Amino acid sequence: MTKLAALTLATALAGVAAPAFAQSQGDMLLGLGAHSVMPTDDYSQTAAPGTGQLRVDDNIRPTVTFEYFVADNIGLEVLAAWPFEHDIELRGAGDVAKTKHLPPTVSLQYHFTPGPKSMVKPFVGVGVNYTTFFDDKGTGPLAGTPVSLDDSWGLAAHAGIDVAISENGWLRADVRWMDIDTDATVGGTPIGEVEIDPWVVGVAYVHKF
Predict the structure, then answer these.
(1) Structurally, how many domains does the chain consist of?
(2) pTM of the model
(3) Which is the most buried residue in 16, 23, 49, 141, by most CB within 10 A?
(4) What is the domain-level CATH number for residue 154?
């Protein structure tokens, strides 16, 4: 066998052995799914006397992600969502406020290379979350009372798996943790920081372009 023939055969075998859904520099992924934002179950002790302890409930909304691969297996992802809506509970008094928020998150992610026959591709990532709150209002005992939550910056971690269902399509299951803390104001009086720090769990269909 000539050196040229041997090189050609080796190249062909390498192509057969390559993972069916490896991501290369310049690839783009679009994901459409739904995620549940699940704030910590712990109550935040507010600073103002008599204001008690607060926590925020769960909510599910549609989500979209876009990821651009800046290098082989390394992607820069942006998460966006339909506005999440949450009730805010005062311990011992029930729901006392409502809020909506958007949590755009930018993450740098590494996608592991599976074996040649594997249909599952795990990934991990870390990034920055910015959460903006709006349509804050008092309810129940605080109905009619102005309520305001400040916007938040924090770190975010991300991990998940992609399961191939076609050459360019995957089903994704993932989980995120976000550092979200907001300063709350009730009736014009600052009452301190509310720690939300949610786990965000969801599923999506992801397509490669």
Answers:
(1) 1
(2) 0.81
(3) 23
(4) 2.40.160.20
Cα(118)–Cα(161) distance, integer angstroms: 12
- In this structure, is residue 154 part of a structural domain? yes
Helix, strand, coil fractions of the chain, as percent rounded to 5: 10, 60, 30
Length of the chain in residues, anyone?
Answer: 209
Considering the domain boundaries, does residue 1 fall inside one? no
- pLDDT tens-digit series, residues 48-67: 545 567 888 899 999 999 99
Which domain covers residue 136, as residue numbers? 20-208
Does residue 137 sit within a domain?
yes
- As a whole number of angstroms, the distance between CA 57 and CA 136 comes to 14
Q: What's the pLDDT tens digit per position in 132-185?
A: 999 999 988 888 889 999 999 999 999 999 999 998 999 999 999 999 998 888
Whether residue 10 lies inside any domain: the answer is no
Alpha helices in 85-208 (DSSP H): none
CA atoms 99, 97, 154, 23: torsion sign: negative
